[in-house]
Amino acid sequence: MNDSKVKIQSSIISILENCLPLNQIYIGYSGGVDSHVLLDACALLPEFKSKITAVYIHHGLQKEADDWAIHCQKMAEKLGVLFLVQKVNATVNQGESPEESARNARYREFQNLIDDHDVLLIAQHREDQLETVLLQLFRGSGLKGLAGIPEKMPFGKGTLLRPLLNVSKEIINAYAVQNHLNWVEDLSNQSTIYDRNFLRQEIIPKLKQRWSSLDKTVARTAKHCADAETLQQKMIQIQFETVFNSDDETLNIPNLLKYSQLEQCLILREWFGKLNLKMPSQDFVHRIVSEVIFARIDRHPILHKKGVTIRRDKSKLLLLCDKYLVTSNTDKL
Predict the structure, then answer these.
(1) CA end-to-end span of the chain, whole Å?
(2) Is the dihedral of CA 147, 153, 154, 155 positive or negative?
(3) Pair 34, 123: CB distance under 8 Å
(4) Hey, what domains does the chain have and what are their CATH numbers?
(5) Contact (Cβ atoms closer than 8 angstroms) between residue 277 and residue 333
(6) What's the longest Cα–Cα distance across the chain?
(7) CA distance 185 to 163
(8) Residue-wise pLDDT tens for the chain (333 aa)?
(9) Contact call for residues 84 and 55 (beta carbons, < 8 A)
(10) b vs e for 228-257, b when ≥16 Cβ sit within 10 Å of the residue's Cβ?
(11) How many angstroms separate the Cα of 124 from the Cα of each of 127, 167, 205, 222, 238?
């Protein structure tokens, strides 16, 4: 067995064995080289093959999408695994980029498939992690963003796994060539209009000429940030419970004022997460603290941004969306 196959299959086995018992194994399969390598390597593992379903998400965004679906079906049949085509509506919503809209539609469809003790495998690799961390860095993200892509996370009723996240792109390409795989090429991946493609095509190759192990070292930094984020999150969750009113999903301002301004900002972000909303900008959080929380008790300041309104009612801090108090079922901003 060649080195690339050993590396990839050992990564898959290790992550799947930590998820036992397993019912169904869904694999996001676009037909590209990364997902084809993941599917091929999984299908060669007899202990898991009977549980595998390859899933092609049809966004309808490219004229080749129908041909790619047919190609993926033929490859799945050749490997002897089940195959699904799921068509999605990737219409761009307000505040979303086309890439974000397609990604959100894709993951919503995957969530609908996953049941108890099911897993979804996605073929993101170490260079994807590098791109993600760099993009988050350029956007001024905090610990959560710099933690990058998680290898394992709850997803729907099951679990999302990225077994190739610690595997280099070179190893994936070597596997594909050595095993004579036949994959599709999405030409839109060459367009440097998109930030990720610009990094991939123009910037990262130059960086790796000087720092050849850049993907490995940045992945290590992401892991450090993820560990720090986990510890911070545990602390903030404890503090959040002391200020959160579960009956009406408001915050108790006197209790909130017992914490430092930094802790208040982190608690506010936890509140947005609790209510299933996108994270607010740093500026908006600081304005909530300075203009609403610290306002005199006889004042009634109101902040509004992107459909979300923050106001105070005596000792309570309220977050309203579309003229009613946000609950955990409210759509994201």
Answers:
(1) 49
(2) positive
(3) yes
(4) 3-219 (3.40.50.620), 246-325 (1.20.59.20)
(5) yes
(6) 75
(7) 22
(8) 579 999 999 999 999 999 999 999 999 999 999 999 999 999 999 999 999 999 999 987 778 889 999 999 999 999 999 999 998 877 766 666 767 778 888 999 999 999 999 999 999 999 999 999 999 999 888 899 999 999 999 999 999 999 999 999 999 999 999 999 999 998 888 888 889 999 999 999 999 999 999 999 999 999 999 999 999 999 999 999 999 999 999 999 999 999 999 999 999 999 999 998 888 888 999 999 999 998 877 778 899 888 899 999 888 999 998 643 333 333 333
(9) yes
(10) ebeeebeebeebbeebbeeeebbbebeebe
(11) 8, 9, 18, 15, 33
The amino acid that residue 230 corresponds to is T
Question: From the centroid of its chain, how far is CA 242?
Answer: 29
Query: Looking at this protein, which amino acid is placed at residue 238?
Result: I
| Beta pairing, strands 302-305 & 316-321 | unpaired
Q: What proportions of the chain, in percent to the nearest 5, are helix, strand and coil?
A: 50, 15, 35
Q: 274 near 301, Cβ under 8 Å?
A: no
Encoded tokens for 173: 């390409």
In the chain, DSSP assigns E strands to: 25-28, 52-58, 82-87, 119-121, 152-155, 158-161, 244-245, 250-252, 302-305, 308-313, 316-321, 324-325
Strand-pair category, 244-245 with 119-121: unpaired
Q: What is the pTM of this model?
A: 0.85
Residue 70 phi/psi, 5-degree rounding, is -65, -45
Phi, psi torsion values for 187, nearest 5 degrees:
-65, -20
Separation CA 183–CA 180 (nearest Å): 10
Q: Is there a cis peptide before residue 46, judged by omega within 30 degrees of 0?
A: no
* Lookup result for tokens 């679990």: 159
Q: Which two tokens stand for residue 78?
A: 């050749």
Tokens at 267, concatenated:
């608690």
